[in-house]
Write a structure and sequence with these properties.
The structure holds two protein chains of two kinds. Chain A is mostly beta strands. Helices cover 0% and strands 52% of the residues of chain A. Chain B is 0% helix and 47% strand. Classes of the chains: A mainly beta, B mainly beta.
């Protein structure tokens, strides 16, 4: 059973870079059939897909965030990471990592990591 | 790109049937997925590809898709079903995921 756990600072200052890590256990992050996404939920709003990374190195990002986001994978640590630059209060959200096949539903999720952007 | 519209809230008494809709532009043959999110817990996939149920999800949860409106139906609603429900599709052209705004189900 695959399990995901997000981690990272809960508070980030405006204009800085938000960095989160998702540790994958129970299955190989190198599973070629799996893609790993980041998804967030701002307070009082719906879910927003941020982007995904695949073991092959391919990535795909939400156009609304593409200029500020980077998702990568460290297979030696079974981790994927999210970096979101130039954050503002609008980036305050609960951030999830999730696994899925290409075009398939998100069938495994982490518990989420709450990040607040404030000075 | 797709825009998925959900009602902000649905209320239902225990034992009754709850219907949560997800509408907008034509889904274009893309299957609709539904997730349940209980505050403080990880989201859970409850219906995928319009009407299929993952193992472990009760038969009380079912889905349908008319082409422009997808519906999640929860029969014999229980107090434990109180949660936020989100619909989701993949935009095949760009491989971008799109979510609805979510519906808060309240069990009266």
């Amino acid at each position: 059973q695959v399990q995901l756990q997000e981690s990272g600072p809960g508070l980030v200052k405006p204009s800085q870079t938000l960095s989160l890590t998702c540790t994958v256990s129970g299955d190989s992050i190198r599973n070629g059939g799996y893609y790993w996404s980041w998804i967030r939920q701002e307070p009082g709003k719906g879910l927003e897909w941020i982007g995904y990374v695949h073991y092959s190195g391919s990535t795909n990002y939400n156009p609304s965030l593409k200029s500020r986001v980077s998702i990568s994978m460290d297979t030696s640590k079974s981790q994927l990471s999210l970096k979101l630059s130039s954050v503002t209060a609008a980036d305050t959200a609960l951030y999830y990592c999730a696994g899925h096949g290409l075009g398939d539903p998100f069938d495994v999720w982490g518990q989420g990591a709450k990040v607040s952007v404030s000075s | 790109s797709y825009v998925l519209t959900q009602p902000p809230s649905v209320s239902v008494a225990p034992g009754q049937t709850a219907k949560i809709t997800c509408g907008g532009t034509k889904f274009g043959g893309n299957g609709v997925n539904w997730y349940q999110r209980v505050p403080g817990q990880a989201p859970v996939l409850v219906v995928y590809d319009d009407s299929d149920r993952p193992s472990g999800i009760p038969e009380r949860f079912s889905g349908s898709n008319s082409g422009s409106t997808a519906t999640l139906t929860i029969s014999r609603v229980e107090a434990g079903d109180e949660a936020d429900y989100f619909c989701q599709v993949w935009d095949r052209g760009s491989d971008h995921a799109v979510f609805g705004g979510g519906t808060k189900l309240t069990v009266l």
